[in-house]
2-hydroxymuconic semialdehyde dehydrogenase
Amino acid sequence: MSSAITPLAADRPVHLNHFIDGRFVSANGRSFENRNPATGQVIGTVDEADAATVDAAVQAARRAMRGPWGKTTEQERAAILRKVADGIMRRFDDFLQAEVLDTGKPVSLASHIDIPRGAANFNVFADQVLTLSTETFRTATPDGRGALNYAIRVPRGVIAVICPWNLPLLLMTWKVAPALACGNAVVVKPSEETPTTATLLGEVMNEAGVPPGVYNVVHGFGPASAGEFLTRHRGVNGITFTGETRTGEAIMKAAAEGVRPVSFELGGKNAAVIFADCDLDAAVEGTMRSVFANCGQVCLGTERVYVERPIFDAFVSRLKEAAENLRIRDPFDKGGTLGPLISEEHRRKVLSYYERAATEGATIVTGGGVPDLPAPLSGGSYVQPTIWTGLPDDSAVLREEIFGPCCHVAAFDDEADVIERVNDSPYGLATAIWTQNLARAHRVAAQIEVGICWVNSWFLRDLRTPFGGSKQSGIGREGGVHSMEFYTELRNICVKL
Ligand code: NAD
């Protein structure tokens, strides 16, 4: 057993334990390596949970629910959540360093998005839980005295939180914060690629006074490892998952055993629709962020761009210029704007689409390969930012999620036609529409089959709004009151008067 994981040092490997029942625990002899994708260097080792370790975490969470945590008021939980937010901000530099080392993403991005939003999630859901209301009904009865129905919200119990690697702290706290606000206990399984910030959060939880067992972290992989052990565990009352659609299918099968509810935020193949009357500067800037931010590893990111023909050439050349101005630097250099892909395995996948686009006859506007970088970045999982034109809509490059810094740009002539092309996808997560014609913006937005549609922006988030995907991009919505609906159950109480 070890007591803490800090201080983190870029030049000193770190060993990460599970966090169970308020303590850092190393349960068996198994561990795996954690690599920095910016250099390929090993930055630490991580314990891998077996079924017994996962069971210990679930049992700790169940005990916590039966203890004082299960009797806390919304006000008490909100106060604790605000302390967690403060604790993350106090240790901002530790979280920042951990996230940058695990992901290789530019420090400028992680310091503006990942860490502050990770903390903000706790404040947002502390506010949210204090304003939660339920319904009441007066019911007529034959004796004329009537009955009063009112609903209360109760926590579901133990929630399994299965997380991806692209925005590790942000996406994990997006689920942990509302789950705790509603009075649940959680067992988190962070991505094997990015295990550090979830572990570090254990220290903050202890400092903030979160009782032992309310927040637990188990490390490992998916199938036949911590992810599967956790989602199959009958002591888990609900599963919230962000990741690939195929993984969602496997988790849904696990959730069927015991009929446990799921909330899924899955993959996408998001489109941007750019009309000729748009503010071209804004459309280029927004599309450039939506394609290349976080090296294209954002679920809401754009991989299909449709541009109205009169501005097609101008748009493509402006986007090309923006892509070629991206700068790969040491991730801790504030001037860097493009990071690596998360792993060599993911780089192989992205490069397979780069090759496929070339063999299918795409015009490569820019990129298409691997950048030539000096050591130590030469050991990193970098690819060139890439833009294609000239592929048909049924090409795999336009239908499958690539999750890299790349997009295909196609021209369109007709509004109805472009709506049909955008909707011709198994996914339905997000879209961005760029036009100055407000009537058209509303008309088109209502017809695109997605969970989130931006007009003249991208990634503009109000955390009270419903967040999630249609079709194979997800099940359910989180955000604001929608999170509270997943993390609680309604109990109706009928009182005969
Ligand atoms: P992934 O599905 O490979 O892994 C996600 C998590 O699931 C990891 O912790 C992994 O260990 C675990 N896992 C894998 N197999 C499992 C199994 N059989 N049982 C239980 N757990 C299992 O996803 P990823 O590669 O980490 O993340 C990228 C994907 O996430 C992309 O498809 C992206 O679109 C999606 N994503 C979606 C959203 C959204 O809000 N819709 C947000 C971010 C990422």
